[in-house]
């Protein structure tokens, strides 16, 4: 097996990062992080408590005045240096991410690390280019706006792309002048803590960034309730998102919620079939389907459905499953044992409701080297649009297929779920493409592609997929307050109460 780990030793940090230092949890608690390939313990990582949240928030509060007063160009330069440093350690960081999450090395090297560096670089460059406005108002008055940081922001990231989310969350927040308390998922804390080490090397002042792994039920809840946190940015499940909304009410903190998804991926009769097959496979099987934007519902025109499925099922069966550190692996394990069991449970639900499993639906067979890990074969299920597997987020290498006759039926199926994060369509009809892009109820739509992201393009959803946007100028607006300033330049204002 050709692995990358032998060429690049992995550095593992296991402590909390508070006020510029790596420290133990105040109560000494730790929690194991597991290798999803074989269920072995990688390390015991400090597990924060509510007391550690308070320590981190105090540090961020004390650091905020100086950081927000620092010139935007200086803040930006630090983020640009961080991006360079991430690129210089690319193989080591990619190996760590693959070890902790199960995401194949070929993807962490090709996608996750470059995207992380790109995002920090994008917001580093934006820091001194984020402008206010001058508004034409009454004659004799100047009215302009300032964009000012909101203060201490709490950021809660999920376990599926922990490395990439450090940049998606912290990049715009820091560029705008905020200080950060970030909670990585307890399952996958290692790459976030490694980024904290690189931030130390860059010279980001103490207290500006604090990273505290811990249980969401305690640490995340306390962050959502905390009176000194001005904003929460959360990526995760819709159920937890609803709890955060309730917890945030005590001080009316701002919220950005990127929640669940059940992406509709429509293939029309005139689609270029090879491209649609390959793109649809990437849409669902990349990162083992553990993506909120995954194209988890294949909606196929009846005239091409059988031909599409012949090719799609054959491709799914050909995907190379194995150790994520093997550079030849195309699909690794799911990130946790509990999640693997949940995904396999949906295979049982599909069969109970009359669905047909076309391929997969089980752990890999006759692969003794994989029996200790959290593996599930690429799974394709044909089911009715109203079945549970067609409506609920499975979050695994599990795609459900339905068929349609008319454009109206395709749109009705696409918009029939509570989620509205991402969706896609495949057609050579330009008018139809634009019409459906406008009509699909989601925050993002891909035409003849799927799961394209870029730091400049807003990312987020509607409905039960949440609200607010990551990335681009939209993200900078989410991390700032607008202040309107009025100046009497030469207006002659008569007295209101003449004497």
Structure description:
This protein is an alpha/beta fold and 499 residues long. It folds into two domains: 16-259 and 465-484, Aldehyde Dehydrogenase, Chain A, domain 1, CATH 3.40.605; 264-447, Aldehyde Dehydrogenase, Chain A, domain 2 (3-Layer(aba) Sandwich), CATH 3.40.309. Helices cover 38% and strands 20% of the residues. The chain has helices at 50-69, 72-88, 90-101, 105-126, 162-175, 190-202, 216-225, 238-247, 273-285, 305-318, 337-352, 388-391, 407-414, 430-439, 472-478; strands at 16-18, 21-23, 30-35, 40-46, 134-135, 141-149, 152-156, 179-183, 209-211, 231-235, 254-258, 264-267, 297-301, 356-359, 379-382, 398-404, 419-420, 422-426, 444-447, 462-463, 466-467, 480-488. The strands form six sheets. It has a seven-stranded mixed sheet with strand order 14-15-16-13-12-18-19, sandwiched between helices. A hairpin with a 2-residue loop joins strand 1 (16-18) and strand 2. Helix 4 runs parallel beside helix 5 and helix 9 (273-285) crosses helix 10 (305-318). The protein is globular.
What's the CATH topology label of the largest domain? Aldehyde Dehydrogenase, Chain A, domain 1
Amount of beta strand: 15-25%
Class by SSE composition: alpha/beta
Q: Could you say what the CATH architecture of the largest domain is?
A: 3-Layer(aba) Sandwich
Low-confidence region ranges: 1-7
* Whole-number count of domains: 2
Task: Report the C-alpha radius of gyration, rounded.
Answer: 24 Å
Q: What would the principal axes of the Cα set say about the shape?
A: globular
The number of distinct helices, counting runs of at least 4 residues, comes to 15
Query: How helical, in percent, are the residues?
Result: 25-40%
CATH superfamily of the largest domain: Aldehyde Dehydrogenase, Chain A, domain 1
Mean pLDDT figure: 96
- The top-level CATH class of the largest domain is Alpha Beta
* Tally of strands: 22
Q: CA-to-CA gap between the ends?
A: 93 Å
